[in-house]
Design a protein that fits this description.
Blueprint lengths: L1 E3 L2 E10 L4 H13 L4 E12 L1 H16 L3 E5 L3 H9 L8 E2 L2 H6 L14
Parallel strand pairs: 2-3, 3-4, 4-5
Antiparallel strand pairs: 1-2
Helix pairs in contact: 1-2
């Protein structure tokens, strides 16, 4: 985890699945409880993403939304990004090609550069 201004960048690696999702949920919600309101999930190191991982991201996004916060994603292999597309969550979440693009956006959905296409 690292901070860039008011943004908190969390790098996810390996499989985001039923085995790792409980720890990820606790970690991300802990960041929110500690005041993080703008989370960028760096999927560059993620090798697999299943529905339990998506459930974590949806839950954290809802919690952040209730606090006027935002969850966005950066990077990700074609396979990981395809999970967002197949589940239609690519229409719900902002997916950026790089962490730099995600950090460059303005809060609240106004972006300085659009999300990278899948």
């Amino acid at each position: 985890m690292r901070r860039y201004g008011d943004r908190t960048i969390v790098a996810v690696s390996g499989d985001v699945d039923v085995g790792s999702s409980p720890r990820l949920r606790v970690f991300l919600l802990g960041l929110v409880e500690d005041g993080a309101r703008d989370l960028v999930i760096d999927l560059g190191g993620a090798t697999f993403l299943d529905s339990t991982g998506l459930g974590v991201f949806i839950g954290v996004s809802r919690r952040l939304g209730a606090l006027n916060g935002e969850l966005v994603f950066a990077g990700g292999s074609p396979g990981v990004r395809e999970v967002f597309e197949v589940t239609h969550l690519a229409k719900v979440f902002a997916l950026y090609g790089t962490v730099e693009e995600a950090v460059a956006r303005r809060p609240g959905g106004v972006r300085t550069a659009g999300p990278s296409p899948l």
